[in-house]
Amino acid sequence: MSAAIDGIDHVLLGVRDLQAARRAFQLLGFTVSPRGRHIGWGTANYCVMFPESYVELLGIIDPAQFTNNLDKFLETREGLLGVAFASVNAEAAAKDLKERGVETGETSDLGRILELHEGDVEPAFRLLHLPAKSTPGTPAFVCQHLTPELVWQSPWLDHANGVCGLVSVTGVVENPGEVALAYGAIFGEDRVWADQGLVEVDTGRGRLRFTQPEGLSQLFPGLSGLPRFDPPWLAGLRLEVRDLNSTAGYLDAAGVRYSRDADSLLRVGPDYTCGAVVEFVAL
User: Fold this and answer.
1) Strands (E), 21-145
2) Residue numbers of the chain with a pLDDT score lower than 70
3) pLDDT score for 196
4) CB of 55 within 8 A of CB of 47?
5) Buried-exposed string 94-105: b where 16+ CB fall within 10 A, e elsewhere
6) Contacts of 183 (CB under 8 A, 6+ apart)
7) Strand-pair partners of 111
8) H or E element in which residue 97 lies
9) pTM summary value
């Protein structure tokens, strides 16, 4: 496994209406952190925080400013648009990956203004950009938190639906073999499994799962009207809950439709989640 990458830091979900996305995830029982505005960019976010990772709801608030191609993504759809890997040192991650033969881009700094009730604060990040050929199946970058204490605050970690962590991200690709080779170079070949068109990658903190288009309905049974896009694209999230029956009870009370796989998993379709299938599982 890469010595400088410590699993999945967060996943990004592009939305057309940021306030509507916040309300949608609150309906599902998530605590949503205050809004953050990216400094020098035309984008803003709300985050759903877990103890070691989070989901970033990302939208445009000023289309005249730089949007990092979010505007182009949203022309086609809402939904999952990328993965950020965690590192305590972006420069060390770049060095480690290059030694493994993985091509990397440049590092850059990013800040955002987090709009707290008691006044704005400015979380800061250092990013390592990764070219598409290094992470087939999903746009990805490495994220170093320079001010983690501003991002992970305890009131935001408690969710009424009982979710306590990110388990995996599922993507759709044409060539699973290409994916297996690429992520084997990043995380180690012993961290990658391939079987019958499905590739799984253990990142050390959360898994990546990739399937071919025809395998998507097998991974997400019980849902009608699953979206279909040209690969590669990200289709869904799997989240850990403390008690599956309690989660089901919350969704029932909120009027959220879901399918259930025996006693092990609940699955909510993309109509409720701004384009992503969200699965709840008790591990």
Assistant:
1) 36-38, 43-49, 54-60, 79-86, 107-116, 119-121, 124-129, 140-145
2) 1-3
3) 84
4) yes
5) bebbeeeebebe
6) 135, 191, 192, 199, 201, 208
7) 124
8) helix 90-99
9) 0.96
